[in-house]
Design a protein that fits this description.
alpha+beta, 5-stranded antiparallel β-sheet, SH3 type barrels, disordered N terminus, flat, two-stranded antiparallel ribbon
């Protein structure tokens, strides 16, 4: 006999409540009457939106081709609009029909139409807002996650799903980690990291425009701002969802030791990059030769330096090699460069 307070019992109760909620909504939708009529109306709106999408998509494409001098971001906006024209038409048609039916008949006879219009509009907004995330896999995860949450919320089953996910947990002593906590942490940390990226991008652009700061110090300042913002975003996000970092201290220490042995080269390159930026021995624009590589330093990254040769080849040289190897900096103190011609 399993006690009533056993975690497995709570899990089964939450699963049953979630199943009953979904089943109840399905029965209400499929019950005879105006609910079925609304489904038929929605199918007709989907067909009409598809036709309008095909027609207006061609018109939009021809109109864009006649434009000249458009920037890349304008073209990207048009591409995103064209991809979602069908959904936008459906949201518009369903929204207009919902408003009309609200005025001419009982509100319950247009409930599903209003729900579909709202969800379609939310989906369009999420699709455009998710473009702020540059990483494509992460953007897809954010998009699908927000879509699923919006759907569950509009169907009034979000609370049941939250209870169900909270019951699926791993408990070690006093430490408890549920699926709900992990998902919440991913959402909060992801949102904060996106905001940190936007702020760091704006700050980096401002720093690079300042001609009073040397190129090497500009790179160092940008990297410092990025590390600070991303670190704050991560720790604030983790604390915001209630995860106690002290409970993970031992585990983090063990992981840190393992990563220390496995990522020695990575850490060495990171430290070497900071040293290069601080001592200003090498900076963007310098002409260097390292071994058989001769070229101009295009960028200084956290792990490597990008060197472009005279024939257009780009070499990514680890920062550690620039510290430990013999580097000839032809323009360290003088912009004049002498080339030996054989």
């Amino acid at each position: 006999m399993i006690p009533e307070s056993h975690p497995f019992t709570n899990f089964l109760v939450s699963l049953r409540a979630l199943f009953d909620g979904v089943l109840g909504f399905g029965e209400s939708v499929l019950s005879p009457g105006w609910r079925q009529n609304q489904i038929l109306i929605l199918l007709a709106l989907v067909a009409l939106a598809w036709i309008l999408h095909r027609v207006t998509g061609v018109m939009l494409q021809n109109w864009v081709r006649s434009r000249e001098g458009w920037s890349k971001w304008q073209l990207r906006v048009v591409v995103q609009v064209k991809r979602r024209l069908g959904l936008m038409w459906f949201a518009l048609l369903a929204g207009l029909l919902y408003q009309v039916m609200q005025n001419v008949t009982w509100p319950s006879r247009s409930y599903l139409i209003g729900l579909a219009a709202t969800l379609a509009a939310i989906y369009v907004g999420i699709a455009f807002a998710a473009r702020l995330v540059r990483n494509r896999p992460l953007r897809r995860m954010v998009t699908w996650g927000l879509w699923i949450y919006a759907t569950l919320y509009m169907l009034n089953v979000a609370d049941n799903v939250a209870v169900f996910l909270d019951d699926v947990a791993l408990t070690i002593g006093e430490f408890r980690l549920s699926v709900l906590t992990v998902l919440t942490a991913l959402v909060v940390v992801g949102a904060l990291l996106t905001m940190a990226r936007l702020v760091s991008t704006t700050t980096a652009a401002t720093i690079r425009k300042n001609e009073d700061i040397s190129p090497s110090m500009q790179v160092l300042a940008v990297k410092g701002v990025q590390i600070l913002l991303y670190g704050l975003a991560f720790f604030i996000g983790v604390r915001a969802v209630g995860i106690d970092l002290t409970g993970l201290a031992v585990l983090s220490g063990a992981i840190g030791v393992g990563l220390g042995f496995g990522l020695q080269k990575v850490v060495s390159n990171l430290v070497s990059g900071v040293i290069i930026l601080l001592d200003k021995s090498i900076k963007p624009g310098d002409v260097i030769s390292l071994g058989e590589t001769f070229g101009w330093i295009q960028t200084l990254g956290a792990r490597y330096a990008s060197v472009v040769t005279r024939d257009g080849k780009e070499y990514l040289i680890p920062n550690e090699d620039l510290i430990t190897g013999q580097v000839v900096n032809w323009s360290h103190s003088n912009d004049f460069v002498r080339l030996d011609i054989y």
